[in-house]
Input
Amino acid sequence: MTKKLVLLSCLIFLSFTAAFAAVKPSTIQDGWIAGFGTTGSALTVAGGYERAIDNRSSVVLETGYGIGNNFMFAAINSSLRYKLKTDPGKWEPFIGIGINYSDYSKKVTEVPGINNIEKGGAAGIDILVSITRDKIGLDLGYDSRSGLLAGWRIKL
Output
């Protein structure tokens, strides 16, 4: 029984290895990114740098600034993104997870997806789904510190 499990595990591993070896060349290009959208109940602008790790994944470091109704915040975020499908010239889906630090100028109440945000700085975790085509991307996600987020970005 143990030999069968080992053989089955090896076959599964080889199948995944063959599948990933057949992936088309990367469409992830290193470069500066800029974007805007909403985070919680604030309008935000952000900028950063994306660095390809391999043909499907990248790491992104970005900083942003948001303005809401009687409050402001600044944030820095580091995330790992993974491309689910590689198809140059068409919309390509991504998923991402990151850690961030944001500093709010005052307590904010009734924020979509999180309810209240305390004044001051705190760390959070964010998850993101996005689609990209060429140099344009659309993002939708959730940040444990700031609530729901949505926006678009462009590779400069």
Remarks:
- The radius of gyration is 19 Å.
